[in-house]
TrEMBL record:
It comes from Actinomadura gamaensis. It is a multi-pass membrane protein. This is MFS transporter. Residues 20-395 form the Major facilitator superfamily (MFS) profile domain. The chain crosses the membrane at residues 21-44, 56-74, 86-104, 110-131, 143-166, 172-193, 218-240, 252-271, 283-302, 308-335, 347-367, 373-394.
Length: 428
């Protein structure tokens, strides 16, 4: 069995792809912001619009559900339209959604705006996967994907700062307007993500036809992402409320939310850089991070100020720190279909994110905040188990493929470097 793949060369110099990666990362940050901003401002919104916590949670869930459900269509769109166009549309959609929310007087208007924002958000990860596959060498993809993953961690940074600085003095509507204007910044930078003309890696025909296919691995990893994201997204969405429940002032909790976001960014960048040395170990690192995030959620469930701060640090740093590594792992698994890698990560994360806000609100109503946080911790542990099962299956498929191949591949995809290859690739 042999499959010929066309290599996509990174444009420009050895570091010429980083401006595009950073622009894509900033776009990723702002397109997810409508959901997190609504969660951060939930207390003020509930009082102003006379909406229950469950009602706000349902609206946030609809935002993420729209992203997950539109992901198959978004994957096709991202594969056909220019990457700068796709990312610019997503950023503008996020801006329009938050501006609409800032002027809304009823839940129906907010929900409609969030649906539009969710559709735009669904375009991002497939486009980012395509960008990284086209521009970034295989031995740099963990760091590039970690940079994009750090952007997801940064989504709580701006809402957290606005909760602490703008909401007390000017209200949630002014804070939401500022967040909307910030969302326009990446739209100006999207031309940096333009891919050079040339062929992308051709599809490997055996990927969907051989007995051992990566589809099962992708399904398990998407499930792992959904389970882990369910717990961590719930805590990120209701961070301020959980902090005040644990005995911390609201302004201090808002500052902690921003600090936790900075910690999440740092962890994703560091793990992305470290795992470049052995990209085949990414699944094991992801599993460990999911388990650590589950421990953080369990500490939050205790409900004291000290355990909340420690638990939040673990949940944000490790529990949310695996997203970029998962993108890198799936790119390595299906290097010939880059948009599928972004699609897998996206549909998993946002399915969990869609479940989390409404479910957590309902569970906290039935079992209290501590009980809901403990159930979220169990979801994180289950996600780690699914990740491990997928990794075992992936290694089994690699072994079967090696036994079936009678001769070496004539041309390997750029992203399919083995751990032994990385050291050599660094010096090319």
């Amino acid at each position: 069995m042999t499959t010929t793949l066309v290599r996509a060369r990174p444009a420009g110099s050895r570091t010429g792809y980083w401006p595009g990666v950073l622009a894509a990362a900033l776009t990723t940050t702002v397109t997810v912001m409508p959901g997190f901003a609504l969660g951060a401002f939930a207390t003020a919104i509930e009082g102003d619009l006379h909406v229950s916590r469950t009602g706000v949670g349902l609206m946030i869930s609809i935002f993420y559900a729209t992203t997950a459900l539109s992901s198959p269509l978004a994957k096709r769109v991202a594969a056909r339209l220019p990457t700068p166009t796709v990312l610019a549309v997503a950023a503008v959609a996020a801006c329009a959604a938050m501006l609409t929310v800032s002027r809304a007087d009823d839940p129906a208007t907010i929900t409609a705006a969030l649906v539009a924002g969710g559709l735009g958000n669904g375009l991002v990860q497939p486009a980012v996967g395509r960008l990284i596959a086209a521009h970034v060498p295989g031995h740099r993809r963990s760091l590039a994907a970690g940079t994009v993953g750090a952007a997801l961690g940064a989504t709580t940074l701006v809402p957290g700062l606005l909760v602490a600085t703008v909401v007390p003095a000017h209200g949630w509507r002014a804070a939401m307007t500022i967040a909307a204007l910030i969302a326009l910044v990446p739209a100006v930078l999207t031309p940096l993500t333009r891919t050079t003309p040339g062929p992308f890696p051709a599809r490997a025909e055996h990927a969907a036809t051989t007995t051992g296919t990566p589809r099962g691995v992708l399904a398990l990893w998407a499930l792992a992402a959904a389970l882990s994201a369910t717990g961590n997204n719930a805590v990120a969405t209701y961070f301020v409320q959980l902090g005040t429940h644990s005995g911390l002032p609201a302004a201090l909790t808002g500052n902690l939310l921003s600090l936790s976001a900075l910690l999440a960014i740092a962890v994703r960048l560091v793990t992305g850089a470290l795992t470049e040395r052995a990209p085949c170990r990414n699944p094991a690192v992801i599993t460990a991070m999911m388990l650590t995030g589950g421990l953080g959620l369990a500490l939050i469930a205790i409900g004291t100020p000290a355990t909340f701060v420690l638990g939040a640090a673990l949940a944000f740093s490790a529990g949310w720190g695996w997203t970029g590594l998962l993108l890198a792992a799936t790119l390595r698994l299906v290097a010939d279909r880059a948009e599928n890698a972004g699609h897998t990560v996206q549909i998993g994360i946002y399915t969990g994110a869609a479940i989390a806000p409404y479910t957590f609100a309902a569970l906290s109503g039935a079992f209290g905040d501590s009980g809901a946080a403990l159930i979220s911790a169990a979801a994180g542990v289950a996600g780690a188990a699914a990740m491990t099962t997928g990794a075992v299956l992936s290694r089994r498929l690699e072994g079967d493929s090696s036994r079936r191949d009678a001769a070496p591949e004539p041309a390997a995809p750029v992203g399919a470097l083995t751990c032994a290859d990385v050291g050599t690739a660094r010096h090319r």
